[in-house]
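User: tokens in, sequence out, please.
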């Protein structure tokens, strides 16, 4: 990308795509202010940050291959964390953005941390939103225990009703199991247990094999302490008080001291997605974290 194009790119909103390994990775660049690179689905996460946040941040929303359309039938089958980090860096070079805060939501928080560990000169801050220390059996059991002990009867009834429809969803669209599961787990994911997340997912490609490998194996076994020791920049761990999808906030207690500089913030009226559930509070927290 030429210097002229790079300068123009930072002055306007635009979108595009990059082909990598048989996947078409989409990016969306929106807003003005502090640069924040958000890894996941460009379209999904653009919907999770309300319009007013574009007055405070310059967002670079990036797909990874789990949310990308295949360009042909020869897409590779490397779904490692290293591959994800390579793809983030490849799209970053295309965009020409030099230094930024990197934000990952849920399992994407591990991707953000791994990128910062590999490319420390590119990253000013790391933000992990609704991320547990791992997706290990221990952490999943902690999430189950918290839901069983603290969720009210209404939330549990909504979850049971929604999960009863999951098999039919998958049968109707078997290639998008990950999306169907997240939608039907809404009572564990949102502060409002009846929130309908389906519009957020409209038109989002899903590659289940990517999620099976990353969430089912890589993030199950991830050594978060080893990654934390490699991070020199400030880290923000933003969690929701009503997030029953992941292990509770105190699951980070023994790991926080490993980071050189870390803040943990729990949003009282949020579940798994504080940027959408408490957008003003989240935006203020994020801006204060980046500016200080």
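Assistant: Sequence out:
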């Amino acid at each position: 990308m030429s210097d002229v194009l790079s300068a123009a790119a930072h002055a306007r909103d635009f979108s595009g795509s990059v082909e990598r390994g048989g996947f078409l990775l989409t990016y969306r660049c929106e807003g003005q202010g502090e640069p924040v690179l958000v890894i996941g689905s460009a379209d999904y996460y653009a919907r999770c940050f309300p319009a007013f946040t574009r007055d405070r941040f310059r967002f670079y929303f990036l797909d990874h291959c789990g949310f990308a359309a295949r360009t042909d039938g020869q897409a590779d089958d490397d779904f490692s964390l290293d591959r994800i980090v390579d793809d983030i860096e490849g799209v970053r070079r295309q965009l020409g953005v030099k230094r930024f805060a990197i934000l990952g939501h849920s399992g994407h928080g591990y991707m953000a941390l791994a990128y910062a560990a590999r490319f420390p000169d590119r990253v000013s801050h790391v933000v992990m939103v609704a991320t547990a220390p791992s997706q290990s059996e221990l952490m999943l059991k902690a999430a189950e225990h918290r839901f069983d002990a603290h969720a009210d009867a209404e939330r549990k009834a909504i979850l049971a009703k929604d999960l009863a429809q999951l098999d039919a969803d998958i049968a109707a669209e078997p290639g998008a199991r990950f999306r169907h599961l997240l939608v039907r787990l809404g009572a564990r994911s949102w502060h409002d247990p009846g929130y309908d997340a389906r519009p957020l997912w409209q038109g989002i490609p899903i590659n289940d094999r990517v999620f099976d490998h990353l969430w089912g194996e890589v993030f199950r076994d991830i050594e978060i302490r080893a990654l934390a020791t490699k991070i020199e920049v400030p880290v923000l761990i933003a969690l929701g008080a009503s997030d029953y999808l992941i292990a509770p906030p105190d699951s980070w207690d023994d790991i926080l001291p490993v980071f050189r500089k870390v803040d943990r913030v729990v949003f009282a009226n949020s579940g798994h997605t504080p940027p959408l559930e408490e957008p003003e509070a989240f935006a203020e927290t994020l801006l204060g974290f980046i500016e200080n």
